[in-house]
Amino acid sequence: MKVALMVTCVNDAMFPETGKAVVRLLERLGVEVDFPAAQTCCAQPMVNTGYLDEAVPVVRTFVEAFDGYDAVVTPSGSCAGSARHQHAIVARRSGDPALAAAVERTAPRTYELSEFLVDVLGVVDVGAYFPHTVTYHPTCHSLRMLGVGDRPRRLLEAVRGLRLVELPGAAECCGFGGTFAVKNSDTSIAMGADKARHVRGTGAEVLVAGDNSCLVHVGGVLSRQQAGVRVVHLAEVLASTEEDAADEPPQTSPATAVGRAPLQGERTP
């Protein structure tokens, strides 16, 4: 099986450890992973803000980079959802039959990480070890657009040492939503505060999700509240082993390391 990693532009720019974790995890499971250097964005930012014509060359770059692989795996339900559902809209609008045909090949072969592990590889116990109390936030696109269901939870429940606690209001949006967080910042902040309150109420040490964009948002709120809860991407939990436990558990980025003191001039709620 020829498998490609779609790392996503957010992870490439801010959270490279997440992409590395996907490679470590898949290689541990016997999968050979390629990283097409030509990959860029999935085109979701353009599509979500109504720039469908501007999204055409981005989708074309995507299919050129990933066409020919048996599977494209990404640590993002948001980006997988874009490839599976939005690319066809963009291709049809372009009037380019070659692009539409390429999208028909790549879209159904694009998987969010938990989908690929459970549905394609047929594994739930990936040999991970993460001795912490964890709560899980199902991100909007993975939950509603992809329908990943309980796959991430099943993977987490099989991790040795991990105690999974229920997150109240788990299916509620965290409030990020890309440009929504900028254009509707007050609403976004209020939704993030609600999610952070539910996370704190669980008593969990770590908040896990399958999209770093959501973890940045909720993690930022938790950080400013000095909640003492860390945020970690699902891939990094599943890639963890006993050897990793000897060191400090993985963190997605210093930007999302919560529990720190406020920066100079920073106000807390």
From TrEMBL:
Residues 241-269 are annotated as: Disordered. PANTHER family: LACTATE UTILIZATION PROTEIN A (PTHR30296:SF0), UNCHARACTERIZED PROTEIN YKGE (PTHR30296). GO terms for cellular component: cytosol. It comes from Nocardioides perillae. Residues 3-80, 134-218 form the Cysteine-rich domain. GO terms for molecular function: oxidoreductase activity. It holds the Pfam family CCG. InterPro entries: Cys_rich_dom (IPR004017). This is L-lactate dehydrogenase complex protein LldE. It comes from the Bacteria.
